[in-house]
């Protein structure tokens, strides 16, 4: 179990995922993409601070081939800087797009953010911190994209063990595509990024599995029109994550005005 318990006291843990930050709008997103997504990241961090929640971002902070990296990092730093010296500096898991953007080199955008003290980077699989949450000791672990989830975790006195992941996992809509949900001995909750569609929480033994869905609507698709991006808030004793709708623009303001392809 990694490190001492931090002195900060939180009322819960706020999970959000897959911003896919880029200076150049991906796919069919309109101009203004970067500012729209940064506004959502900022809203999440502000809500975490106001509500005394530990902020955890579950991967794909940056999109692959994000365009003008200097412009991108300047704006990202402006959003993150108010939290850098506080207990609300976000814990950020490395996703597959972060890796394709070059994570593994200290020149990658994700690592530059960590080196600048803007984020806590989780780029290895394991326990990364221990925290006081509403009178309980909570251990936070994580598994980046491309690494294997643990089969068991030593609790070392923690009341709860929460685990972030950025993996292909067999939730309801993709049950035949990815490995099945299963109990991880010692882990109370796995919260996954990577899969952009919200999936219902399911329990396997002592372990609950949640997939909150991406905060950024990347693709021009009917189900993106109908869904609202959310963060998931964990509190001790919860049987499911509390959804918090992330402020966002209407679908027609960020995608082209045309019919969906047949």
Secondary structure blueprint with pairings:
Blueprint: E1 5-10, E2 12-16, H1 33-51, E3 53-57, H2 69-84, E4 91-93, H3 96-100, H4 109-115, E5 120-122, E6 126-133, E7 136-143, E8 160-165, E9 189-192, E10 199-204, E11 207-211, H5 222-226, E12 230-234, E13 242-245, H6 251-254
Parallel strand pairs: 1-6, 2-3, 3-4, 4-5, 7-8, 8-9, 9-11
Antiparallel strand pairs: 2-12, 6-7, 10-11, 12-13
Helix pairs in contact: 1-2
Number of distinct helices: 6
Would you report the number of β strands? 13
What Rg is obtained from the alpha carbons, in whole angstroms? 18 Å
The helix/strand class is alpha/beta
Label this structure with key terms.
262 residues, alpha/beta, Purple Acid Phosphatase, chain A, domain 2, seven-stranded mixed beta sheet, 6 helices, globular, Calcineurin-like_PHP, hydrolase activity
The gist of it:
By secondary structure, the protein is of the alpha/beta class.
What this model shows, in words?
It is a single chain. The chain has helices spanning 33-51, 69-84, 96-100, 109-115, 222-226, 251-254; strands at residues 5-10, 12-16, 53-57, 91-93, 120-122, 126-133, 136-143, 160-165, 189-192, 199-204, 207-211, 230-234, 242-245. The protein has 262 residues and is α/β, with parallel strands linked by helices. It has a single domain (5-247), classed as Purple Acid Phosphatase, chain A, domain 2 (4-Layer Sandwich). The mean pLDDT is 90. InterPro entries: Calcineurin-like_PHP (IPR004843), Metallo-depent_PP-like (IPR029052).
